[in-house]
């Protein structure tokens, strides 16, 4: 990564999480026992704050900051309709060459954290990127995403962006 697309981004203070990590409903085993000891598949509802908490600490691939600190993602940019989660993100500059990588990192984080019943759509904020349609198409095409995740260098880069994702808005320990 020799070219820096935004050498001097604006950094914002993270917002305090409104929920304790134990409040997350899908972290527990989805197969719960009923009073008779039988396993019951329960579908727990989730909200935009829970999704935001999962992605807020993803690291930007160019800077030592989280996507939340760069205001690339925010809770109002997330919508949930039934089992469909739509995450809209805003690159820091309209010509950001890292937009596809950022979107892929968001997708991988949510695929790992959410139950399989959720459909995940990742899109750029309308008008925020010069190649908006092409990036959106790449991020939401199963075959393209699968092909990208077969590239070991790209997977390693995605893993680097996800190193602090489990912090959920908490500062990294030094």
From TrEMBL:
<dbReference type="GO" id="GO:0140535">
    <property type="term" value="C:intracellular protein-containing complex"/>
</dbReference>
<dbReference type="Pfam" id="PF01883">
    <property type="entry name" value="FeS_assembly_P"/>
</dbReference>
<dbReference type="GO" id="GO:1990229">
    <property type="term" value="C:iron-sulfur cluster assembly complex"/>
</dbReference>
<dbReference type="InterPro" id="IPR034904">
    <property type="entry name" value="FSCA_dom_sf"/>
</dbReference>
<dbReference type="InterPro" id="IPR002744">
    <property type="entry name" value="MIP18-like"/>
</dbReference>
<dbReference type="InterPro" id="IPR039796">
    <property type="entry name" value="MIP18"/>
</dbReference>
<keyword id="KW-0159">Chromosome partition</keyword>
<protein>
    <recommendedName>
        <fullName>MIP18 family-like domain-containing protein</fullName>
    </recommendedName>
</protein>
<dbReference type="GO" id="GO:0051604">
    <property type="term" value="P:protein maturation"/>
</dbReference>
<comment type="similarity">
    <text>Belongs to the MIP18 family.</text>
</comment>
<dbReference type="GO" id="GO:0007059">
    <property type="term" value="P:chromosome segregation"/>
</dbReference>
<feature type="domain" description="MIP18 family-like">
    <location>
        <begin position="49"/>
        <end position="118"/>
    </location>
</feature>
